Amino acid sequence: MSKRKARLKREAPFYIMLAPGMILTLIFSYIPMFGLVMAFQNFNPGKGFLGSDFVGLQNFKFILNQPNIWRVTQNTLFIACSKMVLGILVPLLLALLINELAGTRLKKIVQTSFFLPYFLSWAIIASVIFQVFSLNGPINSLLEMVGADKVSFFTDNAAFPWLIIFSDTWKGMGMNIVIYLAAITNIDQSQYEAAVVDGANRLQQVRYITFPSILPIVILTITLALGCVLNAGFDQIYLLYNPLVYESADILDTFVFRLGIGQKLYSPAAALGFIKSLITCGLTGISYYLAYRFAGYKIF
C-alpha cells in the first residue's frame, strides 16, 4: 500500500466527521451565493434567475441614490464600532478585576454570572430589555427615585442606539472574559514572584506583567473584530427597534430586509447586500493580515 493510501485510510474517520459540517456549509453558504445574480437583474420570482432581464449596474445606482443610504451607513458604522470598542474594553477590564479576586470559588461564580447571558438568544434578551427599560420599568422607576425625568428608551433617537450598544456588550462580554482569563492563567507565575520580591504592588503587577502578557490576545481580538465592522447586529436591532427610531438605529441589514422582504425590491436589496459583502470581505482580509502582522495569528 502506498504512503498516500495509507495516510488516506488513517485520516478517513476525520474526513467522515467533517462531512456533515462541510455539506451544511455548502448548502447554506456557498450554493446561495449564486443568488447574487439578482443584483444585476430586474428579478422576477415568476421568471427565476434564468428568465429575469439583466439590467447591468442599474440596481447599484438605484441604491446609491436612495436618500437614506448614507444615514443608514453612518448608523451602521457608529453602532458597530461602538460595540467593537466596548466589547473589547469592558471584558478586558472585568477579566483583570476577576483575576484579582482572592477566592477560586468566588472567581468561578462571578465568571459564570457574566457568561450566562451569552447562551441566551436575542428573542429572550429582547423581552427582558422591553420589561426593564419600559416607561414603567425598574430603570425609569429608579430615575424617578433620584429626581430625574423618565426616558422613553424605545422612541428616543438619542437613547436607543446606546441601549443597543450596552445591551450587546452585556450579552457578549462573557466570551471575551473567558478568552482573556485563559490568557492570564498562561502567564509564568515566577514573574509575579519576582515582582513581589522587588516590592511591586498589585496594580503595578497588573500594569507591568499581566497586561503586557495578554496584549497579543487583545490585539488579536481587535483585528479579528475589524471584519465585522459592518455587522451591527441585525437580530438584536430588528427585535428591538421601531419606525420611531429608524433615524438613529436603522442599519444596512435592516434596510436590506425592508427593501427585499417589505417592499419586494429583491434586486436592489441584493445589490446592497453584494456591496456590503465585498467591503466585509476586504476588511476580513485586512484583519487577518493585521492579526498575523501584530499577533502572529495565521488562519492558513
Automatic annotation (TrEMBL):
The keyword Cell membrane applies. It comes from Holtiella tumoricola. The keyword Electron transport does not apply. The lineage of its organism: Bacteria, Bacillati, Bacillota, Clostridia, Lachnospirales. Belongs to the binding-protein-dependent transport system permease family. This is ABC transporter permease subunit. Keywords: Cell membrane, Membrane, Transmembrane, Transmembrane helix, Transport. Residues 73-287 form the ABC transmembrane type-1 domain. InterPro entries: MetI-like, MetI-like_sf, UgpAE/MalFG_permease. It comes from the Bacteria. It is found in: Cell membrane. PANTHER family: BLL4140 PROTEIN (PTHR43227:SF11). GO terms for biological process: transmembrane transport. It is a multi-pass membrane protein. Gene3D superfamilies: MetI-like. The chain crosses the membrane at residues 12-40, 77-98, 119-139, 159-183, 214-234, 269-291. One of its GO terms (cellular component) is plasma membrane.
